[in-house]
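Illustration: DUF4468 domain-containing protein.
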Amino acid sequence: MKIKTLILILGLAGFGFLSLEGKDPGPGDEKSEEIVRSVQDTLTWVHLKDSLKVKGTAVIVLRPDSLRFDYYLKSGDEWIYEVDSDFGFGITKALGSFQYPGISKFYTDKRFIELEDCKACPMAIDRDSIDYGLILTAPERNVRIDENIFGMEYYLEIFNEYFRN
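Result:
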């Protein structure tokens, strides 16, 4: 008896789904469209709020935002302090030593970087998977993204290669 009841329920459910295919949208469907538009508006707002716009020649230093940093700490990844310190020390010393006119310097924890003045621009970079790194950009040059964590000499070499060649 239980098997017959189960087959009957599944059969009616299947028939109900088939009959919905050609149905005109009802009031519930309009709500779904409103929800989709609301989500799209929210994503656009988040993108605009969590973006850095850069024009011209620039060095953009990428660091994790406080939520990601705290996530690493709560996960037991206390190495994040050492990485943050090493990266911060190396990049600060390198930027302080590198003298080249007209280069803007940005430190950011923003997720989206919008570049307006490079060879392939305009472009947006979603740096969600990059905790620490650099973005180098200049007019008529390809963008360079570096995710390595080293000392001052490494960063100075990268700056010289990109901006002076």
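Reading the tokens back as a structure: The radius of gyration is 25 Å.
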